[in-house]
Amino acid sequence: MKCLLFLGVVVIIGNHAVSGAAIPNKHKEEPKEELKPEEQQGEDWELNLEYGRYLKEVVQALESDPEFRKKLETAEIDDIKSGKIARELHFVNHNIRTKLDELKRREVERLRHLAVKEHEKATGVDRAKLKMPGHLDLKSHTRFEVEDLKNLIVKTTQDLEKVDKQRKQEFTTYEMEKEFERQQELNALDEEHKKQEEQKHEEEMKKHKEHPKLHEPGSKQQYEEVWEEQDHMKSEDFDPKTFFKLHGKTKNRFVDVAVDITCSYDELDQNYDLNIGE
């Protein structure tokens, strides 16, 4: 049977500390089913103490070291109560020390979460309404995995579509306001100047219709445009292999799509630039 001397000593201390303060129960209690010693210990440590689980796991880890357990068995009760026995931790097995480090890390994390919850409760924060970052895979906080890249690309695509939709709406509003102002100006002109302005407007509209259309993302035309305008290379020297190396194109489709999305940003800027007259 596993020895839990340290645990037992603290339990005994706790029992002595509260035995004199017990409040008598006037009502006769119904008999309860007796628990085995192991069950009773688990119940005591996990229900009676807020940090009981942490304490129990630390004790169990320490008592798995034979040398430390021997020192516990021969130690004076006052040395245990005062914490003097803690000095023997320097001689505990390395693997057990590693285990203790992990237990402490988990306990600190638990307390951190409790503190956050208390703060949210005090400030009225509704956790259900908090938005989690969609561009990250939160299952791992230390490694960048496939899901991280996938989430990043999908989120970027979604955001780009939202930007495109928003710019279309802004551009439509801009065109309507511009047309309203134009009509107001025309109404203030005589017939001769009105005809001149109408002719000028028709020329601008014709030029606007001839504005180059967006290239399909991932198309050869888009790559050639990037090759000339961003890479400052000659069109006749276009080489797909060189282009893919310059822009990170690989056999990984996730990366390829990310490159296509990046190239598409400039296309959107050109199509919905409100600073361009036509």
From TrEMBL:
GO molecular function, a single term: calcium ion binding
One Gene Ontology cellular component annotation held by this UniProt entry: Golgi apparatus
Domain of life: Eukaryota
Ranges where the NUCB1-like N-terminal domain occurs: 25-157
Cellular localisation: Cytoplasm; Golgi apparatus; Membrane; Secreted
First and last residue of the signal peptide: 1-20
Chain segments carrying region Disordered: 193-232
Stretches with biased composition (Basic and acidic residues): 193-218
Keywords, ordered alphabetically: Cytoplasm, Golgi apparatus, Membrane, Phosphoprotein, Repeat, Secreted, Signal
InterPro entries attached to this UniProt entry: NUCB1_N (IPR057576), Nucleobindin (IPR040250)
Protein name: NUCB1-like N-terminal domain-containing protein
Lineage, broadest ranks: Eukaryota, Metazoa, Ecdysozoa, Arthropoda, Crustacea
